[in-house]
Amino acid sequence: MGRRMRLTAAPLYIFLLICTCGYAFIPGVDGPVSNVETLEGGNVTLFCDSTPDSADDEFMILVWYKNNMPIYSFEIPNKQWSEPSFNTSSRLQADIRSQPTAVTISSLSEEDQAMYHCRVDFRLSPTRNVGINVTVVVLPSPPFFMDEMSNKVTGRVGPYHDGDTLVLRCLVIGGRPPPRISWYSGDTMVDASDGDSEIPAVRENELYLPLTRDNAAALSCRAQNTELAPPIVAVLEVELYLPAYNVSIHWVRGTVGDALRAGSPALAHCTARGSYPQPELSWWLDRKHLTHHSNQSWFNSSLTAISFLELNPAVGDNGATLACVATNPVMAPNRGSNADVITLNVTYSPMVDIMKLGDGKLNDVVELDPLQLKCDIKANPPLERIRWYFNDIEIKAGGIWGDDISSEKLFVEEATRAHAGRYSCAAENAMGETRSDTIVITVFYPPECTGHGIRLVKESLHCYVKALPIPDTFFWHLQPSGFEVQHLTTGSPILPLDQITGPLGDTLRASCEANNDVASQEEACDRTFTFEHLRPQQPQQCDIAYEFGEFQMRCVPVENATYYEVSVWRMSESNASLVLERRASMGFGGGRALAAGGAGGAGAGARGPAPRAALGRVRRGDEAGARACNRYGCSRPLLLRPSDTLLRAADPPWWHVFLEKDVGISIGAVILVAVFIISSVLLLRLARRPRRKPPVIQVLQLDDVARNYLDNIAEHKVRASCSLRSCSSGYSDASVESAGARRKPWERWEPPPPDVTLTLHRESAV
Ligand SMILES: *[C@@H]1O[C@H](CO)[C@@H](O)[C@H](O)[C@H]1NC(C)=O
Ligand SMILES: *[C@@H]1O[C@H](CO)[C@@H](O)[C@H](O)[C@H]1NC(C)=O
Ligand SMILES: *[C@@H]1O[C@H](CO)[C@@H](O)[C@H](O)[C@H]1NC(C)=O
Ligand SMILES: *[C@@H]1O[C@H](CO)[C@@H](O)[C@H](O)[C@H]1NC(C)=O
Ligand SMILES: *[C@@H]1O[C@H](CO)[C@@H](O)[C@H](O)[C@H]1NC(C)=O
Ligand SMILES: *[C@@H]1O[C@H](CO)[C@@H](O)[C@H](O)[C@H]1NC(C)=O
Ligand SMILES: *[C@@H]1O[C@H](CO)[C@@H](O)[C@H](O)[C@H]1NC(C)=O
Ligand SMILES: *[C@@H]1O[C@H](CO)[C@@H](O)[C@H](O)[C@H]1NC(C)=O
Ligand SMILES: *[C@@H]1O[C@H](CO)[C@@H](O)[C@H](O)[C@H]1NC(C)=O
Fold this sequence. Notes:
CATH architecture of the largest domain: Sandwich
GO cellular component, one term: membrane
CATH class of the largest domain: Mainly Beta
CATH topology of the largest domain: Immunoglobulin-like
Number of strands: 52
Radius of gyration: 75 Å
Shape: rod-shaped
Helix content: 10-25%
CATH superfamily of the largest domain: Immunoglobulins
Subcellular location: Membrane
Bound molecules: 2-acetamido-2-deoxy-beta-D-glucopyranose
Number of helices: 11
InterPro entries: CD80_C2-set, Ig-like_dom, Ig-like_dom_sf, Ig-like_fold, Ig_sub, Ig_sub2, Ig_V-set
Keywords: Disulfide bond, Membrane, Signal, Transmembrane, Transmembrane helix
Region (Disordered): 727-766
Structural class: mainly beta
Number of domains: 8
């Protein structure tokens, strides 16, 4: 059978070649046709089924034609042929074994586009024809760009401003079938209006595109003429000036939530996106440019600028606006700026200030007036609590404070002295508690007597009142008993007694009222005084002398005495009591000077002039008394009794009369001459004595110092210093009667109690 096939094949082959020369394949009529598209340079596989329709039939020959020209054949048993002009570079490969048989043409060129068909002959069955319409696609050149002036543009155009219209042509050379040219922004087609250009075999698409941030970012031109290959893309970079489109401030650290803390630094950063070129980021705090503590970085791939700001917020910055302004340096400021503005929330523990409200008086209030204090508070976050402090102790509701003590105002309807003291307030919020300074409130009140009222201190009256402010005027009402009321005003609470006129030997009714300009004193301080303790001491050292023909009483001065009185007491004949015989004031100075009423002698020492007085007629058994006086009255008298010696000296012998008269003087002169002769011997001895022998004097209770003092007074007759008012009154009261008439009954002599008298007398007699 193989042999027969071989024999019959050759003539058939030749026949076929000849026969088919004039034969043309008619698609659809001679056999089915399929379409195949393929790329230039690629390959295409043509399939053809060569199995016979029935099992008893047999395949004879298969021939492939291109446009009716044979390019390949295969016949049994194993004869293969290919057209050498077509099978160049061994580009034709056949696989006859598998079914359907496959013939692959590689390195396809434009010329390979043709109608191919295969013809299969069988021994019995009719010839089979299958057509394949092969289209070879030729890709176009990559697109390129030309501007309006037909200048070629490579890669990058611009710069443009936002909104400018970009006019640009995209051109493509060649391509079969002719390509479609489209403009894309990203994946969005923005222009598909392509067409043929003036240049042959070149197609173009001219773009008119108002540029925006969105469409300019990824602009490209695409050319495509087959689905077999992806479009050919040319990317265009557009340099577009853009303002930042999103500026935002964020806190990096130093905040709690979005709240800042006064005094603790915080870091903010501002991000500006989408600006080209790099924007300038500036920080503003309430329209104040912050130039320090910020830096800026730029990330050109994402068009993001970042600026950090270190901010140290103060209390005053609460509520302030913080702005980050991104300015594009190449654009007009009104177009190129964008900003983010945030309001600062600066928290701080309260700021507290205490003050007194009302009447303009800073820190004082008059008793019974209202007292109103205000706690001036600034706080963020808002206050949670207010506390008031009085003398550093927290004020609790109730008592002198009323019930409302938790508001910003502390109100006391009627201030009392208990409300005077130190006040402060404290405010608390979530950030802490702050205590205010202390304000010292003084409560003024009118004067009122203290427990003491008026007191006598030494020789002054003191008015004891409580008052705030300290009173500056004191009104005195003074009434020595038996006299008119005297009204005096002083600027201090002390009134010296010497400002009161009239004697103070008896009682004095005194009242005082103070004034401190707050209100007048409601009740005057009142008291009645006696001044016995201010009277002088009883004279302690006195003597009686018989001098210049009369009895005299002399005393050592007593402190604080302004005048002295002398008295003579005589034993009553009817009963055993002493009766006042006469009384007189004592003068000062030496014996006779006293009688003349002139100035008394004054000691050179501190004791002042010695008081002395003539006693007049003194009998045996009489007693003489001396007492010291001042305006507060007189002391008890010191009583002395003249001694026998003195009495004898005072009671002269009978011839004494002659000595007193002119005759007596003559006789006396004669006697003196005689005596002179007789005593001439003695004279020398007597001449040495500087002093005349003193008269016979009984000295009582005098020590040596006092004696010496009294003697000196008598000798020198120093002029008395009588600056004291009381001194002159002592002189003027020369007569008993006139002094007595002026004196009050309580100042009168009282009979000295016998026991006292005797005691003194006994002492003096020792
Ligand atoms: C035909 O082309 C495809 C892809 O293009 C390739 O994988 C294949 O090897 C080619 N065949 C021949 C026979 O060249
Ligand atoms: C094409 O030519 C090469 C060498 O010239 C040959 O080896 C190959 O078999 C031919 N192809 C076919 C299908 O005949
Ligand atoms: C073959 O395909 C081309 C386009 O690829 C077409 O123009 C032609 O008419 C087709 N031929 C037939 C016979 O279908
Ligand atoms: C700006 O950016 C922030 C986050 O960075 C975003 O939440 C906001 O929506 C953006 N605003 C605009 C207008 O894009
Ligand atoms: C500020 O922050 C504080 C604490 O976070 C908050 O209580 C308060 O309400 C904030 N104030 C404003 C005006 O946002
Ligand atoms: C800017 O300041 C921040 C905070 O101080 C810092 O973290 C950052 O590194 C600084 N950047 C530059 C570029 O200096
Ligand atoms: C960003 O800047 C770097 C150098 O500064 C440059 O090499 C790079 O090309 C720039 N990138 C863009 C997208 O402009
Ligand atoms: C005399 O008066 C002064 C002043 O008043 C007083 O200090 C003194 O004690 C008085 N002397 C006597 C002895 O009373
Ligand atoms: C003593 O006699 C006098 C008159 O000589 C008289 O004034 C006085 O009252 C008498 N005193 C007494 C206690 O009787």
